[in-house]
Task: inverse folding
């Protein structure tokens, strides 16, 4: 029996599709048949956005995979976390299972740069990323947020022992 992972991420352009494939590929390469990953973009029936699937089909289809999953990986990068992913995250939170958030924005932290801190007092000069704190809180209540795909891949191993 393999550990089932739902890989939640935006999937609406080449960059997002390629990144998702890259990270999931690293997980599959490291853990092989120990894990079974649902990558929504591989489910063309509801996620080929050049085709058509109505809202009910998308909700029911993805919910079925969320309900079977042992873990949710949520890619939180972007201007804001993807709205569909945020809904999936809330749904999965209610299932009381572990969530790992992947947030790789390089604007996190001061990096020891005092100018970044001083810029906070100037209108529209923040040098930092923003992420919705309710979303962050849900992830942290069920797991943690990780800042690189390499660390994410390693962290998954802790759930397989």
Result:
């Amino acid at each position: 029996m393999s550990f089932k992972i739902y890989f939640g991420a935006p999937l609406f352009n080449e960059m997002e599709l390629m990144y998702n494939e890259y990270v999931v590929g690293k997980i599959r390469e490291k853990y092989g048949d120990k894990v079974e990953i649902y990558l929504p973009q591989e489910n063309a029936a509801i996620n080929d956005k050049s085709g058509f699937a109505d809202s009910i089909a998308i909700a029911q289809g993805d919910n079925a995979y969320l309900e079977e999953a042992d873990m949710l990986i949520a890619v939180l990068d972007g201007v804001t976390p993807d709205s569909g992913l945020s809904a999936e995250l809330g749904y999965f939170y209610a299932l009381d299972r572990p969530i790992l958030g992947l947030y790789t924005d390089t604007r996190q932290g001061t990096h020891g740069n005092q100018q970044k801190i001083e810029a906070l007092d100037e209108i529209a000069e923040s040098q930092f990323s923003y992420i919705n704190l309710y979303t962050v809180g849900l992830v942290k209540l069920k797991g943690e947020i990780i800042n690189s795909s390499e660390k994410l891949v390693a962290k998954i191993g802790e759930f397989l022992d």
About this structure: The CA atoms of residues 56 and 62 lie 10 Å apart. The mean pLDDT is 95. The longest helix spans residues 14-31. The first strand starts at residue 3 and ends at 8.
